[in-house]
Structure formats: structure tokens, C-alpha cells
Amino acid sequence: MFEYQLGIDFAKTLDKNDPLALYRNQFHIPKDDTGNDLIYLCGNSLGLQPKTTKQYVNQELEDWATLGVEGHTEARHPWLPYHEFLTESMAKVVGAKPIEVVVMNTLTANLHFMMVSFYQPTPQRYKILIEADAFPSDKYAVESQLRHHGYDDKEAVILWKARKGEELLRYEDLEQILENHGHEIALIMIGGVNYYTGQYFNLKQITNLGHKYGCKVGFDCAHGAGNVALNLHDSGADFAVWCTYKYLNSGPGSLAGAFVHERHAHSKTLNRFTGWWSHNKQTRFKMRDAFDQLPGAEGWQLSNPPILSMAAIRASLDMFNQVGIEKLIEKSKMLTGYFEFLINALKNEHIKIITPKNQEERGCQLSIQVKTADRSLHEKLTNAGIICDWREPDVIRCAPAPLYNTYQDVYNMVEKLKNILNE
Ligand SMILES: Cc1ncc(COP(=O)(O)O)c(C=O)c1O
Ligand SMILES: Nc1ccccc1C(=O)C[C@H](N)C(=O)O
Questions:
Q1: Where, in this chain's numbering, is pyridoxal 5'-phosphate bound (predicted)?
Q2: Minimum-distance ligand to the CA of 389?
Q3: CATH classification of 81-321 is 3.40.640.10, yes or no?
Q4: Could you tell which of 140, 195, 397 is best to mutate to test the pocket of ligand 1, judged by most ligand atoms within 8 Å of the CB?
Q5: Architecture of domain 8-50+324-421 in this structure
Q6: Is 201 helix (H, G, I), strand (E, B) or coil?
Q7: pLDDT under 50 in the chain at which residues?
Q8: Does 251 contact ligand 1 (Cβ within 6 A)?
């Protein structure tokens, strides 16, 4: 059984033996005023920039400059099928088949488009179940879908809540909700990894449970993609959406992903919004043909996509392909396990990790709850060169990303935390 040890030497040894150590140098690491690397633990909000991104984006700028409209077919990576260059790698990252995955739009937009298809209320079955502390954008999207269909956005939302005095959600409570209300629930929509607690849910278990009661099941995997092994295909979920600017390092506001399970790939009955990019590629430019649905997730696209953003995603996915999500997760578990060990060794009553202890129920993020919601702790950490975030009401989120964070990052962070707590 592997045991972590205290002391900087141990961190150095772990870094020395880290098979992914070389990847850090492939990123731009933000620096402080004196030119020293900041300790960046915010990859759960915005991932860092791979050094190759500029090259990938520049290539498209150059091809646009030299080719103009011809670039759609003649660019080194032609723009018409550009999204296809991302599909296979993205499918690997989220554990799906290529036909189930597409990169398009942005996250909340994709969530809406998926709900257009998978939230089909009837007078008997019209409610949507979400986790009580869902990310606000998800909650607002769900509420607006309910209003759009003429339902009361308070009455028609069912919340899966933590028990009093607890932070994490329990499956037995979800089972109870479904036993009581399953027949009224049209859609279960859960954040695959909760943004606040870092709790990673068992997608398959939730999907099976939902399907048993006749509900559709979808996940927002913004905090899961590139962070945990989502295995979306095996989960059986009807749909999933995620962004690419967190663990997938594709840049602020970059395009998002969508997954639609293979069993819906050829559906002609699902309601959906369409555009010319959901139409058969072979006849798209004949322009006058009647609409002919593309099969698979691609059939949910609307518009020709922004190539510059896709180029940045391609740069990042090429690195993920090289490393492999399994290797990445292996390091992630070691790194976050080490982080947890060091924090717990502080034995400080002022802070408490609320993220699950079980590695299978979390990704790389640890959410540190601060007693009396003392926000000054976060400010002091920031002043000490640690980039992490504060989420209301009382949590500091830290996410060591295995591609660019080191064991020494984590060690130094906890040393600084210790000094601040002992001030
Ligand atoms: C779970 C979750 N949902 C939705 C969003 C909002 O995404 P966007 O602004 O990309 O639509 C985020 C992060 O910003 C998120 O973490
Ligand atoms: N896209 C952003 C733009 C501005 C500020 C934050 C974000 C985030 O992504 C927040 C993140 N979703 C979170 O889990 O808090």
C-alpha cells in the first residue's frame, strides 16, 4: 500500500518520478510581478494555455489570409468538415463512440438544445429533477424550459438535496424521490461532477434508476470532461453536455461538447431545433432540398462553427490524445490524494474538505470549507500567489490539474495555507 509522506523531499521525489512531468513545460504558466510561477489551481474554472495553441490558431488565420473562402475546402484542415477533426479525440476523452459526440455552440446553449429534444413533458409527466446545488446557469436553463412549456418553475422542479448538516448527496435519497415522484419526472438533469463540492456521481447508477421510472436522463459534465473517466456511452445517459475551457484547456468561452446516446442516433421522432449544419453533408449546398437529418450527435448542429475556437480545441485534444485519459487520471488521483493528505495533516479546525474521500467519487478538485465563511483566507492565499477560487457561501475550490500541476505546487500551497492559518 502506497503511503504519502510529509516534507518537501517527498514532493520532489514524486515530481521526479512523474511520467507526465514534461507536460507542464508545454503550458504557459501565469507568473507573479517578480516573474515567478503562480500556483495555479483554477483549471476547474479556466484551464491554462498550451504553447501549441497559438500555432494551431495561427494556421487558420494564415489559411484565411491566403485562401479566403477557398479555405472551406482548401485549408490545410478544411473548415467545412473541421469539427470532424475533433470528434474522435473528444469521444475518447468522454468515453463515447464518435457518432455520439459533437463539438458545437457553448455549454448552456447545448443544454437548452438537448432539453428541446429530451424534455418532452406530458400533463402527467412534466417535472425536472436537478441537484439542489446545481450550477446557476443549469438551474436557470431548466427553469426557463419549464416556463417555455407553460409550467410553474417552482412547482415543477424537484431538488435532490443533501441532508441537514451534510454536504454530499446520497443515492438512497434519490431512490426515495424516484419512488415517490418517478412517474411525474420527465427529465433528470444532474451535474456529473458538482461544481461546488466536487462530488462525482455514478452516472450509470443514476441513469439506470431514472430509466427504470421512465425518465430521460442527462448530465452536465462541465467539471467532468478531461477530469474523470466519464464513460458516457456505458452510462446509458440520453445526453450530456460539457465545456472545453476548464480541464480541456481550450480558452475562455470556447466551444462546448454534446453527447447523444447512440440509441437516438437515427431517431426521426425526437423534437429538435435544426439548421443547415444538421442537414445531410452531401446535399447541404444544393440549398433547395427538403431537410434531411444527419444521423448522430452531428445532427444537433445548427451553424457552421467558429474555426478559431475549434483550432484551440484541436491543439488541446492532440495533447490529451498523446497522454491518454487513463494516464492522466492515474496521476490525478495521486496528486489530489497527496493534496488531501497534506491538508488533513494540518489538523486545523478552521477548514474542512467537503469533497468525497473516495477517489472514485471525485475528480481532481478539493473543496475546502472555511469555518464562519471567512473569505479573508481566500484573499490571503491569492496574495501569497495561489490561484484558487472562492464560491459562496463558504468554500475555497482548488483543482490541481495533472497535465500542468506538480506535487511541489500542492506542497507549497499547503505550506502557505498552514502559515496563513497559524498567523
Ligand atoms: C456546471 C456548469 N454549468 C454551466 C456553466 C456555464 O457555462 P457557459 O457559460 O459556458 O454556458 C458552467 C461554467 O461556467 C458550469 O460549470
Ligand atoms: N466561464 C466562466 C467565466 C467567468 C467566470 C467563471 C467562469 C466559470 O467557468 C466558472 C465555473 N463554471 C465554475 O464552476 O465556477
A1: 107-108, 135-138, 220, 223, 245, 276, 304
A2: 2
A3: yes
A4: 195
A5: Alpha-Beta Complex (3.90)
A6: coil
A7: none
A8: no
